[in-house]
Amino acid sequence: GAAVDLTLLADLRLTEPQRFFLTCVSGEAGAGRGSDAWGSPLLLEKDDRIVRTPRPWQPLHLTRNGSRQVTLRGFSQPSDLVGVFSCVGGAGARRTRVLYVHNSPGAHLLPDKVTHTVNKGDTAVLSAWVRKEKQTDVIWKSNGSYFYTLDWHEAQEGRFLLQLPNVQPSSSGIYSATYLEASPLGSAFFRLIVRGCEAGHWGQDCTKECPGCLHGGVCHDQDGECVCPPGFTGTRCEQACREGRFGQSCQEQCPGTSGCRGLTFCLPDPYGCSCGSGWRGSQCQEACAPGHFGADCHLQCQCQNGGTCDRFSGCVCPSGWHGVHCEKSDRIPQILDMVSELEFNLETTPRINCAAAGNPFPVRGSVELRKPDGTVLLSTKAIVEPDRTTAEFEVPRLALGDSGLWECRVSTSGGQDSRRFRVNVKVPPVPLTAPRLLAKQSRQLVVSPLVSFSGDGPIASVRLHYRPQDSTMAWSTIVVDPSENVTLMNLRPKTGYSVRVQLSRPGEGGEGAWGPPTLMTTDCPEPLLQPWLEGWHVEGPDRLRVSWSLPSVPGPLVGDGFLLRLWDGARGQERRENVSSPQARTTLLTGLTPGTHYQLDVRLYHCTLLGPASPAARVLLPPSGPPAPRHLHAQALSDSEIQLVWQRPEAPAGPISKYIVEVQVAEGSGDPLWMDVDRPEETSTVVRGLNASTRYLFRVRASVQGPGDWSDMVEESTLSNGLQSEGPVQEVQAAEEGLDQQLVLAVVGSVSATCLTILAALLTLACIRRSCLHRRRTFTYQSGSGEETILQFSSGTLTLTRRPKPQPEPLNYPVLEWEDITFEDLIGEGNFGQVIRAMIKKDGLKMNAAIKMLKEYASENDHRDFAGELEVLCKLGHHPNIINLLGACENRGYLYIAIEYAPYGNLLDFLRKSRVLETDPAFAREHGTASTLSSRQLLRFASDAANGMQYLSEKQFIHRDLAARNVLVGENLASKIADFGLSRGEEVYVKKTMGRLPVRWMAIESLNYSVYTTKSDVWSFGVLLWEIVSLGGTPYCGMTCAELYEKLPQGYRMEQPRNCDDEVYELMRQCWRDRPYERPPFAQIALQLGRMLEARKAYVNMSLFENFTYAGIDATAEEA
């Protein structure tokens, strides 16, 4: 509907705040009567949501003058005037808010123009002129949030400019320019209004053309009507009001004897605010210059034929002339607003209107319509208005021969005028073929309804009929978008359905005839159970044993067997393995390619239908391994321990990384157990935790780049309860003819080292437990708002009590019992904390975990960050690409946090260990590679990290310390975001405390202003991407932090690595853009990296090209 007739007036003629007032006037019928059809009363108030200023000394007074006017007075000081005021009127969907922005005349910066109305896609330029100069930077804000910073040297002729290219409706709002650390009262405030369509268009899809608003009127982007400036009215704002009047019908009168001088008029969007017609200037008290008129005096008269320029209404035409510039004669009739082209559907009877004006005034009989064949149609009705006569013609049923040029002609005693327009007669579309079946399930059919058709497009809608074959029941109908396929749901399994389609084009009578029907049959019931991959292990260089399970459900199993899918992404090859028995739960895959990464899933099938796939697993089939270890011997040491001794394989292809021992009960039916010997120089181990008087089978294999062949199986039994061997090493040595005295010494040394290791571990654990006894039960930390926070523990709850707030904020976390944690060895430690690998028991299952704990003398800030990390982990929830919380435990007043254990450590060390040219040059040159990691795996690290950061950003968390050292490598080499000790659940975080900063990973705004947002995390991700491509190089290696502070604002960025594709480097550069809002969001980064993975292209070149060198590493620089 039409825009609400609502005007907000600000009287700027009064210099004293006590005399300043705002008035809201409604021209709507019934305005302000409360519960009647027009809705709630008028509201006029100061809006402090964006521009916050000191509260007035005394409340503002709101007075009502009748039902259509409300006035706000009582301003006691200049600061009361600064900010945003709003007037609200209208009812329901027509409820409208009009805004007025007031700037302090004594501010440091003032806007050249307060209100800016632009179109979608335009470039908006906000200009603030300097009234009082300060030699500090200027901060631009949008809707109260940080947006951009300008150096004070960037002022141009005393003005600071902010250019906003390609603006969108979301760019609308209140903008401000403020000197750094200055009061908001000294800011320049702007209002930016962005129409929802490009210039000259309106409508939901912006395809309709605006009517051409005159005298500075603005086309409404939703209903296409002109919002006229104060002092003008009419459908196109073509009529001027008398001086001093305003409103949609010129029904309102400016108060006082000075007319509209000194008044600012604010109208509904997209118009905004301006002076009244005939006035200009920041105070609206300057009259228009000669030759100019209208609101803000932006219009030029350019009068013709003796017309004179009036600054309020424009050209005043002499007798016999009219028009905006007096260019039209009153004597000659004229066709008005005739469209150039019309479109109708075949065999419809449309109505065509033709409007005309002139002197004398046209009447019904003076307007006629001519068809292309010369047939003259007379109007059936005429609507006479003050400025025109509109004749209405009822057209007989249209045929194809009616397409062509039609003519509207008006004739009076003053002359005649005619206007030609084209009429296109379109044929409704009719399907030539039946709809196509795309897919079928037991209760669904997926149909492509839009096939070849006769007639004219475009297709506006598709109506689809369907019912069971040979049924007399009514057709079921569904109407869909022509660009979409149709899914027919809730059907009967194994049933034939008759399906047909009707197409429609735009306009009345656009429905075509029904197309030919077709028969579609639903499938047998689809399997609904989702298998779960229980595990897999390599049984040979090209063989993989896979096991899976199904959830238990009542009733018979719906399924004929299982389908396993192996996807080799590097080669773009897929292999499918059919297991034809629905009772099978394991299979052996043979003929695989050694050294290949596969993506594996399994699903149940029935008939031709596949059930849901199991969660995909990433499986690495190792390269062909070394030969089997030689001369394996086993010797029982006690009722629970057996010692194994062997010799190294002959001629292994590379350095051995570890040995793998397989243990199995001789008469048992269970799966074998595997254990790793991670020290390749040792050729013996002790297997503990065995059952007494039990016979076991053992075998060993070595691993280089992957596991090799198994040794021969050996058998040994544990001793009876309480017995212990007296010299196992000597007996083992005697049994082997080829072992000499050196082997005996090696075994003795190995056993001694093992015993010492166990003793040291027990002593360490004892110290840890003893130190826990002296720790406090309650400790405090300072929250982000500066309040003191008490941390208390109770069953599964961490309570954060912030003083002086009366109510605590409980934080629930999954509870681990102290008895269910078995500490193993130290993973790492920092200045205030330790991370210990442990085995925990959760929900009845044992699993590896990393336990984080504070050192005994940690500071209160350390306790704050540690508890904050638990809070972040709880709020984040679960995601495959972040380190997830397993639980927490409180013991003797101290907090222990259990998180996922990442077996491969942090990504930085993992990348640096892959530099095979440094660790094994012979292997690197033989295989022509600089890394043990493939290009696809490196890109996968980046993609996983982007997915994890997208999840963090969607949860409104800022990481603040994103770097390769804070990304961990988990199972199946999946990268996971970790170390949330500095994370903040805020859209913008400003650091106010001192501390060591990760300068080489920080964005420009973080370095200069200590401002952290998700966009500063995007900058850090660009550095992380550089670290991945460079295999763990140090960013800006060779540069000091001081040089970074100087060069980054000047545009310096890290160079493109030689092994990096242009597309990957361009993504880095996008992350390092100066302006935060120009950096891509994490959702876009994750999508772009995902597409790179699918492209099967080597975006990171790991081949040994000529003069290949690794990026430099400077450990001392990374600490800064």
UniProtKB/TrEMBL annotation:
GO terms for cellular component: plasma membrane; receptor complex. Pfam families: fn3, ig, PK_Tyr_Ser-Thr. InterPro entries: EGF, FN3_dom, FN3_sf, Ig-like_dom_sf, Ig-like_fold, Ig_sub, Immunoglobulin_dom, Kinase-like_dom_sf. It catalyses: L-tyrosyl-[protein] + ATP = O-phospho-L-tyrosyl-[protein] + ADP + H(+). GO terms for molecular function: ATP binding; transmembrane receptor protein tyrosine kinase activity. ATP binds at residue 852. Residues 207-238, 298-327 form the EGF-like domain. It is a single-pass type I membrane protein. It is found in: Cell membrane. GO terms for biological process: angiogenesis; cell surface receptor protein tyrosine kinase signaling pathway; positive regulation of angiogenesis; tissue development. Gene3D superfamilies: Immunoglobulins, Phosphorylase Kinase, domain 1, Tie2 ligand-binding domain superfamily, Transferase(Phosphotransferase) domain 1. The keyword Transcription does not apply. It comes from the Eukaryota. Residues 821-1100 form the Protein kinase domain. SUPFAM superfamilies: Fibronectin type III, Immunoglobulin, Protein kinase-like (PK-like). The keyword Phosphoprotein applies. Disulfide bonds join 228-237, 317-326. Residues 428-527, 530-624, 628-721 form the Fibronectin type-III domain. Its main location: membrane. Keywords: Angiogenesis, ATP-binding, Cell membrane, Disulfide bond, EGF-like domain, Glycoprotein, Immunoglobulin domain, Kinase, Membrane, Nucleotide-binding, Phosphoprotein, Receptor, Repeat, Signal, Transferase, Transmembrane, Transmembrane helix, Tyrosine-protein kinase. Its EC number is 2.7.10.1. Belongs to the protein kinase superfamily. CAMK Ser/Thr protein kinase family. PANTHER family: TYROSINE-PROTEIN KINASE RECEPTOR, TYROSINE-PROTEIN KINASE RECEPTOR TIE-1. Transmembrane tyrosine-protein kinase that may modulate TEK/TIE2 activity and contribute to the regulation of angiogenesis. Heterodimer with TEK/TIE2. Interacts with SVEP1 (via C-terminus). This is Tyrosine-protein kinase receptor Tie-1.
